Amino acid sequence: MPARFALPLALIPLLAACGGGGTAAPKVQSASAKPALTIPRPPARSGPPSARIQSAPGLEGVIGATPADLVRQFGAARLDVWEGDARKLQFAGDACVLDVYLYPASAGREPQATYVDARRGSDGQDVDRAACIAALRRR
Q1: CATH number of domain containing 121
Q2: 85 in a domain, yes or no?
Q3: What is the pLDDT of residue 78?
Q4: Which stretch of DSSP H or E encloses residue 71?
Q5: Helix (H) or strand (E) holding 11
């Protein structure tokens, strides 16, 4: 056999070994490789979180009130906004604007006031909530 064919014939077994068709060797993970990041699942919730109820002097009669109770105290609400099962009633007078936030105490129950916020109608600056409630009751 001529020498010019010897080299290509010697390379054929090497090239055949590089070709596909066989099973791939398993990848070996080095000891320094970090394991995949596992993000824990958040705990399952059984329902909406319970409402946190605001309490402060001067808010008696408003916190814990139902929408009907609030209308009896302040008259018709200027705004009545629903978001999911939460409700906001807004009452306004010359002295201030009062936002009352109501949430259901439990499933199927009427929402009750749990938080109030008060501000001046002219510039939106915060005012004392108890003073605003007293002013709106006097009108």
Answers
A1: 3.10.450
A2: yes
A3: 96
A4: helix 67-74
A5: helix 3-18
